[in-house]
Structure formats: C-alpha cells, structure tokens
Design goal:
Elements lengths: L1 H25 E5 L14 E5 L2 H4 L7 E6 L2 E10 L5 E4 L2 E4 L2 E2 L16 E2 L14 E5 L9 H4 L2 E2 L3 E10 L10
Antiparallel strand pairs: 1-2, 2-11, 3-4, 3-11, 4-9, 5-6, 5-8, 6-7, 9-10
C-alpha cells in the first residue's frame, strides 16, 4: 500500500511539473473577454497561445496575438503594423506601406464609428513603426480598445500568437487569417 501511494505521488508530481513547464514556456490558454474581436472571436471563446514562436520567428501582419495590458487582463488583437511599416487609416481603410489592406475579417456597419489615424496621431516619432513595437487593432473596430487608444505595444508585452480556438467545441479553428 505504501509503495503504491509513493508511485501515485510521483506520477502526480511528474504530471504537475509537465503542466507547469508547458504552460510557462510552450503554450497557454486564454479566454476572450468582450466583443472587440467579433466576428473572429466571440466573448467567452477559449484559445491556445503559442509562446514558443516569439523565440524563433518574427510576428507578421495579420497574426492574432495575446499581450499583457497595463489596464487589466491580457488583450487579444490582430497585428496590423510591424517594425519598419508605415500605417494609417483613412475612411475606414487601413493602409500599410501606402497600400490598402484587404481586411475581410473586419466587422463594421456603414454608420460605425471608425477613427482615422496616422502613426503621428498614435504618438510615434517618425514615419515608421519603431523596432520591437507593433500596431494592433481589433476586428470589431467600433468597439475595440487597441493601438488607437493606447498606442503601439512593445514586443516584450506579447505573450504569444493565437494558434487554436478550442471553445466552443463546434467552432474549433486553427487558421485565423
């Protein structure tokens, strides 16, 4: 009996260590809070975030990321501008490096509130996004708190890229671009 309890204890300890290592260094799950990413994510959706990518590859325009917020829980947003890009919004169109981008994922109505902006409006010195900073926007632009409100985000605040929506089960998804 004592040997069996020790074996169970060791098994539980190993499982706990594996879970801690995976959640700390590899992947983590997050709950989407609010409607700022509609229609891509709904309030209450659960996602898996890849924390490994940050160590091996650069983030790209269109990537969905989770990042730490100074104002509360982490945010889920879409990267629109990466270091070296010029970005502006005019008449509901976002221009990256002078070209309008095709944003089929954006949710808005004809009378939606949309802020036109330039990088200068967001507090950027110069015409390009600085190194290690990113411009992020929500897909539901009228409701989203994003770079239009709090400026660019620093790379060190990024937790990782969203790789999988696992909840609700009937909407499990792996590709968000």
């Amino acid at each position: 009996m004592k040997k069996e309890l020790i074996e169970w204890g060791i098994t539980i300890l190993i499982a706990a260590v594996i879970v801690i290592v995976v959640r700390t260094f590899l992947f983590d799950s997050f709950k989407v809070d609010g409607h700022s990413m509609d229609p891509t994510f709904k309030d209450g959706d659960r996602v898996i975030v890849n924390k490994i990518q940050d160590r091996f590859t650069d983030y790209e325009n269109g990537d969905l990321i989770v990042f730490r917020s100074e104002e509360g829980p982490p945010y889920v947003k879409r990267i629109i501008g990466i270091p070296g890009d010029t970005v502006m919004m005019e008449d509901k169109l976002v221009y990256v490096n002078g070209e309008p981008i095709n944003e089929t994922y954006v949710y808005y109505t004809n009378d939606s509130y949309m802020d036109d902006f330039t990088l200068e409006d967001l507090g950027v010195d110069g015409e390009e996004i600085p190194e290690d900073e990113y411009l992020v926007l929500g897909d539901n632009r009228p409701l989203s708190r994003d770079s239009r409100d709090f400026g660019l985000i620093e790379r060190e605040s990024i937790i990782g890229e969203v790789q999988l929506r696992f909840w609700p089960l009937n909407q499990m998804t792996v590709n968000f671009n």
